[in-house]
UniProtKB/TrEMBL annotation:
Pfam families documented for this protein: STAS (PF01740), Sulfate_transp (PF00916)
PANTHER family xrefs: SULFATE TRANSPORTER (PTHR11814)
Cellular component terms per the entry's GO annotation: membrane
Keywords carried by this UniProt record: Membrane, Transmembrane, Transmembrane helix
Keyword Membrane applies: yes
Organism phylogeny: Bacteria, Pseudomonadati, Pseudomonadota, Alphaproteobacteria, Hyphomicrobiales
Compartments reported by the entry: Membrane
Annotated protein name in UniProt: Sulphate transporter
Regions crossing the membrane: 25-46, 52-72, 79-97, 103-123, 135-154, 179-198, 205-222, 255-274, 324-344, 350-370, 382-415
Keyword Secreted attributed: no
Length: 569
């Protein structure tokens, strides 16, 4: 029955035997997820219970609508940082006298992210997942991690830090160093060290779980709250009621822009993570289908007083490592967290804030992928520069503006790659088939009486002038005995009206020198553009050919060697 419902793909083919794997996996997911569920909301100034709510309802929604068997959704440090920036912009737009309901704003943004996901699915915009390249994401998350680390200064020290950015909070901390609450700082640093010890020695008990249990026990024994160490405080013991955020009381333009920024980062990073896990398990990742699952996983928290979520690396990794086989593991995790909320709220109330700061600081450091940055440096210096630009944007302009910088860097990179399409004059090598780039193969020789010029890339408004200049310089440098110039358009995927005008200008120059301008292997779409622009009429339809060899035979009477495009340079 379940398998026949398309919306329950993560539970397709379910049988009871799977519970032997899914129940332990779900318990492990809950154990690892509870500390982050309590800690992450602090990044955006939200109460800890909102993280628990998100960790309960989001996996349930994804189990119903998500396509993957193994992915687990939940609070994510990077998404929370973008959420914090978006909330800051919305709160700043509110009148000073207005009461600010941070939970309602976070819920409205979660609803907006969900709507963006569904709209993108309907428009089949899953390709947006590839819009932020891996280098851009790596750099952006490195910048986000530094922002998170700086944000923990106050929680570690017990000092209220009012400055924003990267350097000002450090300067303010130095100025207020006399106010440091040393027991809080010592506790936070000890727990931070414990997390790294557990990670280094690969303890079977996850570090965050150990920190939460140990710090709660110590807090109960030594009365941390009475000694001035901040604790989480009261956490509601019941589940939230279903309600819609009051959108009419909020600046909708800021809600839309904030939701768009969160959607772009969380979906882009989520699909990167999904594909990474999919490559290990052999599970295909369909970005358009994932939009439905992530849309539902964000709308559900919005209706229960929580915030946006994304694919959780840590929870998905735990699911895989403990043998989870279906979304039943996510449902077990949700049920476990419900039990924790009902029965453990008294223990969670005395959880010390410095311990949560240690968990957040460790999570932030894990966002800095030094190995990947080294790999990018080794592969492409240019992409490494764009990674640094994205990191600098997140640090210098704030996380929300950093998203804009990251998107702008991606656009600049894409334009840079296509503004100067690869081109070159082609010739033959004696005894070998095909055509070869004269600049790359010194032994290649031009075809006598003709010139063959190849362009690899589209000819569009932003590179048409470059293409025209290149073709014009080639045309003017041709020997006097040249009878034709054949443009190999086999790798030209698209030509717009500006590109057509550039080719028309080249045709005029060649006509003045009595050199025939011909095109080979022109696509039907590009031919239609050139016909409507009058370029085909100018050069003559009889000068369009299916290949370079056909063009040379017709224009100069040469019987060429059988060549292949694959051997062309």
């Amino acid at each position: 029955m379940i398998g026949s419902l398309p919306m329950l793909r993560g539970l397709a083919g379910f049988n009871r035997a799977w519970l032997r794997s899914d129940i332990p996996a779900g318990l492990s997911i809950a154990a690892v997820g509870l500390p982050s569920a309590i800690a992450y909301p602090a990044i955006a100034g939200l109460p800890p219970e909102t993280g628990i709510y998100a960790s309960i309802v989001a996996p349930i929604a994804y189990a119903i609508f998500g396509p993957s068997r193994l992915l687990v959704v939940g609070p994510d440090a990077a998404t929370m940082t973008v959420l914090a920036a978006a909330m800051g912009a919305i709160i700043a737009a509110e009148p000073a006298t207005a009461s600010v309901d941070r939970v309602a704003i976070a819920s409205a943004l979660a609803l907006g992210v969900g709507v963006f996901c569904i709209a993108a699915k309907l428009l089949r915009l899953g390709v947006l997942a590839s819009f932020l390249s891996r280098p851009i994401l790596v750099g952006f998350f490195a910048g986000v991690s530094l922002s998170i680390l700086v944000g923990q200064i106050g929680r570690f020290t017990g000092v209220k830090i009012q400055s924003d950015g990267l350097i000002p909070p450090l300067v303010e901390m130095l100025a207020k160093s006399s106010l440091i609450h040393w027991p809080s700082l010592v506790l936070g640093l000890v727990m931070f060290a414990l997390l790294w010890i557990v990670k280094a020695f690969r303890f079977r008990v996850p570090g965050p779980v150990l920190v939460v249990v140990l710090s709660v026990v110590l807090s109960a024994i030594f009365d941390f709250q009475g000694r001035g160490i901040a604790v989480v405080g009261d956490i509601p013991s019941g589940l939230p009621s279903l309600s819609l955020p009051a959108l009419h009381q909020m600046p909708l333009d800021k809600i839309v822009l904030g939701s768009a920024a969160i959607f772009l980062v969380s979906f882009g990073a989520g699909i990167v993570a999904a594909r990474s896990f999919g490559s290990r398990t052999g599970e295909e990742v369909d970005a358009n289908q994932e939009l439905v699952g992530l849309g539902a996983a964000n709308i559900a928290p919005a209706l229960f007083g929580s915030f946006p979520v994304s694919v959780s690396d840590s929870r998905t990794a735990i699911n895989l490592s403990t043998g989870g086989v279906s979304q039943a593991a996510g449902l077990v995790s949700a049920a476990t967290l419900v039990a924790a909320l009902v029965f453990l709220h008294s223990a969670l109330r005395i959880l010390p804030i410095p311990a949560l700061a240690a968990i957040l600081a460790t999570a932030a450091i894990s966002l800095i992928d030094i190995h990947e940055l080294k790999k990018i440096w080794r592969i492409s210096r240019m992409e490494f520069i764009f990674a640094l630009i994205a990191m600098w944007g997140a640090i210098s302009f704030g996380v929300l503006n950093g998203v804009i910088v990251a998107v702008a860097a991606t656009l600049v990179y894409l334009l840079r790659q296509t503004m100067f399409p690869r081109d070159g004059l082609l010739g033959r090598i004696e005894g070998r088939h095909g055509f070869f780039d004269l600049a790359r193969f010194p032994e290649a020789r031009p075809v006598e009486g003709a010139a063959v010029f190849a362009i690899q890339g589209s000819i569009l408004f932003y590179n048409a002038d470059y293409v025209r200049t290149r073709l014009t310089s080639v045309a003017r440098a041709l020997p006097a005995e040249t009878r034709c110039l054949v443009l190999d358009a086999g790798a030209v995927t698209h030509i717009d009206s500006t590109g057509a005008a550039a080719l028309d200008a080249v045709a005029e120059i060649l006509a003045k020198r009595n050199i025939v301008f011909a095109m080979a292997d022109l696509s039907e779409e590009s031919r239609g553009i050139l016909e409507r622009a009058g370029v085909i009429e100018a050069i003559g339809a009889h000068n369009l050919f299916n290949g370079r060899e056909e063009a040379l035979r017709a224009l100069i009477g040469t019987v060429g060697e059988a060549g292949s495009a694959a051997s062309a340079g």
